[in-house]
Amino acid sequence: MKRINLGLVQGLSVAALFLTASIAAAERPDGDLMKPTARSAAKTSASAGAVTADDVGDVYSFGRNVKFIGVGQSGTVTLADDCTPDPSFPPGPNDRCIVVNPAPATTVIDERDIGRLNLPGKASNSLLCHWLTPIAFYTFVNGTGGNANATFRLTPYFTVENEVLNDPSLIDPTTGLPYGGSFEVALGTFRDSANLDSGQSETNSMNLSRVCIAGMVSKLNLIDMGLSDAQATEFFKKPTTIRFHLAGTARFVGFASVSYGLRLVGD
């Protein structure tokens, strides 16, 4: 058996791998990327002081202390051939179960609002930085009469809600429509693939962490999204709700159990 584990992936790279529009919809652009236009704008910011974006990348958070501002846990998303609840172990309010499509069809995962954090205003100055840890247990199964390529992809993503985004003049450049109070950000984390012989199965587990680079939300990226410096500053003064979701795809996956934890720090 030839097996490939591609480990960490970024959503912008894996989107090209999907072969149909429905599968592509399960992947979202990676939210933890530094945006060049915002970095350029930061060069002229009065808050930059003696440093520039060319020097330190993010002038708004430069030299500030790290603050722990929240931790949350998603519900468990289960993939199975039967989602009838066990009366002895009823699912929690944030748990979900998806009946897998018969092989070789792909099962698309898109479960929304499986957890949330409510941050008070002024929880951070210019940055919501993530420590994201998905935990997955899954079994590849090939019950066909020939060889098969099994795949499992996971992308935690989030809705960020803040009243500053209610301004109808703020237009989301990806949709051409007003933000309407929120935007989505994805943090692609995992892809696994295995070539299975007929009748073969393989059980795996995944436990890894992805830690902040540009941040789940930052003043730099808010400016890149069309907010003015003043609006981006006001964003962090207002309460923010973060809703947890999970997207992905599964093929020749007989069973899976996925959850993730999110720790946020600010500046």
What this model shows, in words?
- This protein is mainly β and 267 residues long.
- The protein has one domain (31-44, 67-266).
- Helix content is 12%, strand content 40%.
- It has 6 helices and 15 strands.
- It has helices at 11-14, 21-24, 36-42, 53-56, 219-224, 229-235, and strands at residues 3-5, 67-73, 77-80, 96-99, 106-111, 116-119, 127-141, 148-162, 182-186, 190-196, 201-207, 210-211, 217-218, 240-251, 253-266.
- The strands form 2 sheets. Strands 2, 3, 4, 7, 11, 12, 13 and 15 form an 8-stranded mixed β-sheet that branches. Strands 1, 5, 6, 8, 9, 10 and 14 form a 7-stranded antiparallel β-sheet that branches.
- Mean pLDDT is 84; it is low at 1-26 and 38-48.
Compute the separation of the termini in Å: 48 Å
Integer count of domains: 1
Overall average pLDDT:
84
Alpha carbon gyration radius? 20 Å
Strand content: 35-45%
What is the tally of beta strands?
Answer: 15
Assembly annotation: single chain
Order of helices and strands: EHHHHEEEEEEEEEEEEHHEE
What is the makeup of the main sheet? 8 strands, mixed
Helix content: 10-25%
What structural class is derived from the secondary structure elements? Answer: mainly beta
Low-confidence stretches: 1-26, 38-48
Overall 3D geometry?
elongated
